[in-house]
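note to self — DONT lose this again. spent like an hour looking for the file last time. sequence + predicted structure for the chain T wanted, 394 res
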Amino acid sequence: MRVILIKYGELSTKKGNRNFFINTLYNNVKEKLSKYSVKIFKDRARMYIEFLDEDLEQIKKIIDKIFGIHMYHIALIVDTNIEKIKSGVLELLNLEDFKTFKVISKRSDKSFPIHSQELNHVLGSLVLKNMDNVKVDVHSPDIFLNVEVRENKSYIYLNSYKGLGGYPVGSQPRGMLMLSGGIDSPVAGYLAMKRGVLVDAVYFEAIPHTSLEAREKVIELSKKLAVYCSHINLHVVDFTPIQEAIYKNCRSDYCITIMRRMMYRIMEKLVKINNGYVIINGESIGQVASQTLTSMAVINEVTSVPVIRPVACLDKLEIISLAKKISTYETSILPYEDCCTVFVPKHPVINPKIEVASVEEEKFDYKKMINEAVTSINTIKIIDNDNSEFSELL
């Protein structure tokens, strides 16, 4: 019988909270694999998934996108008995084509009469005796033969599959992601989820200045992020009246600064409405005028909610590389502009002053307009199975 043997990695460093993180991971794995005939078991060191052979490849694709998994293996289970272990080793190796190998034994069951180093020699000799033209190579073998001896059952495996690492989504409370149609913000959302944050997304649209295609682009980006969790709530904000008021009443070089300050005020309200704790965005230091440290300080001044910027210290090429890894890049570069790019002035201020921004934004009744924007929000529930459900924001 084979199982998927999951190793926790960073979760193992937790002490009193380890069970909470493991239980969160267990629930995430169980939900993700709910369509498959599996049995899932866990302890403080490992998680085990029994599966049907025909489902293995699909299950692997799902596990590859679950945060909190350091590594996993497809392992053969045998009774903790030296003869059963020997038979299992030969069963696995007879299916492989290799010239060199190395045995790595771990004996968690200290009542097992053969200690790890001796077991390495016993199994190495077994392989050399029963297989032609193979030899031991402890430095760079073709195959690593892993044997984990545990109480009652032992696990034998050859392969290692790298997981995403991080913490399971939901081990941290909710954060609200400012999701534009660009390259940076989806990567920021991905990195926040990797640290266990439960993410809701917020999209600011300014129809007719932005298009319905731009909205569909953001919905598609949300779907690509949803594969790393169970679902994402995408809150769509009608930003048109506010944006038009800014460009009608405020000096042009401060328009982007004031626009971002308005967005942050709306985000703060949405954080409170949705029981969130932080604002998350894709700002990268110095990338555009609104992302200089001076601009960030002026924009941040309007909210007391913590702002998390996961890509703040990455350069554009690093962000693009991550975007390609998580399959958001091709969607992000589609030529549909969001409200942050439609009205960019020729010479935006890069070192704005709080006093100037405050005076400029008092030229229109932004507080009333913000309240109207918040009360008219529509929420799209993006589910991992590519179905989208529209509902009013509660």
